[in-house]
Amino acid sequence: MREEHMSKAKTEALELMKNLPDDVSIGVIMEELFFKQQVEIGLQDVAEGRVLTHNELKERIARWRKSAGR
What we know:
It is a single chain. The protein is mainly alpha-helical. The protein has a domain at 25-70. The protein contains three helices and no strands. It starts with 7 loop residues before the first helix and ends with a helix.
């Protein structure tokens, strides 16, 4: 299959794997792909305004701690 016909995700995954050491394990490849996915999700959240201010986050953490009895 020629690269111009590959999906963007497949092309990016292959590029990521090319930059890993030759003796990399499948587990490490999966971790790297998962990390990349999570970063992309976070960037999309920012682009779409799904963010919290520092104070909003502190308040949310305080509520979680209180509900957990801490």
